[in-house]
Amino acid sequence: KTTLSNVTGLSTPIDGLIPSRNYTVTVRAFTVETGPAASLIVNTLSIMPSPPLNVTVSGPTSTSLLVMWNSPMNPNGELQFYMVYHTGIYSTNYKKSDPIPISETTYNLSGLVPYTEYSIYVTATNDARIDAESESSAVISRHTLPSHPRTPQTPSLSDVHVQSATRATFVAPDVDASNGPVRYIDFIIHHAALGSSAPPLSAVPSVVGPYVEGSDWYVAVRYSYTEYQSKVASNQFTVGSGSTRTMGGLRYRNMPLKPEQVYFIYLRVIGVYENGKEMPSIGQPLKYVTSDQTSNSFTSTATGCSESVGMIIGPASASFVCLLTIAAHIIIWRYRKRVQKRFALEQRSNLSLERMDSSLCDIVANSETIAGREAKSNDENKTTAHYDVFCATSKCHSHIVT
Fold first, then answer.
1. Which of 105, 194, 304, 318 has the smallest number of CB atoms closer than 10 Å to its CB?
2. DSSP string covering 199-236, please?
3. CB 337 within 8 Å of CB 297
4. Is 178 a residue whose pLDDT tops 80?
5. CA triplet 290, 291, 292: central angle to 5 degrees?
């Protein structure tokens, strides 16, 4: 209750009132005596409300955040609705929600990006101006949780790759860690029957470990994320190199492949939840059919070239040098094949001569028998039969005089 006394004139301001309230104003006139009172009920106008209070976030998932708040301390009118604003850490443009009924003080922000920090604030609107909002609440920042790593790309064969009987050289794709921390990157090998197609990803065993004798599925190599990104990603990598390495207390063997076999090469990325639980993600495989053993001599050298030269002079120059190396090995290999073919022809020729010699020897033997018979029947004529036969390979020589 406010009393204003000694007012002269016919009007006076009344300050310190609260917006959007009903007030009763009573006026009395004073002369020698107090006159009767006259009363009037008036309403103060609404103004913009104060900001919502105590904004918090709970129940985060990889794609959502649950926002909660309290009503403004001073509504300054009849509240109409709330609005929630959010933006990612890499953006300055806030997105706003649809109007939220005044009866609700929670809102589920959905469709967010995993493992991303968001800034959030809340505003209120009353009947002062339906197209205007209060000042924003205090801005808070929260992270969404990690999710499964993004599906890795399929490895692709290297430009300098030459089909081999024991190894495959390809380019290791980059790994996207935007969905959360990545712990390991694995190269998984599946040894399949000739003519096989890639099994569906759902058929890949949930647990695949280091190579065990006779296993069709095994991890050839495991890297930490940091090591993979700095040394392996976007560079040439060889499966079947025969190397071994230890990671996480386990020993992984990059076993040589077998000739004329089908292999599927998978890239598996293992992320990790905040509670430490692992989340694997696996991409489509690269199908690789090893060659026969005869072509492996120059393939091994070419692969070794691409690995060693690339470390010295860089991938681009290494590709040129290794292409020359491969060409030289192909020429040598073709020359060796021609020599082997010529040797095989000579062997067949020698075999034919031996068979001809054997036939000639049979003819000589028959001739000797016939000559002996003729000598006996022609004693009176003193006929002499003379045969002298030399076989082509000097293995058969018969000289008969009767």
1. 194
2. PPGGGS-S---B--TT-SEEEEEEEEHHHIIIIITTSE
3. no
4. yes
5. 125
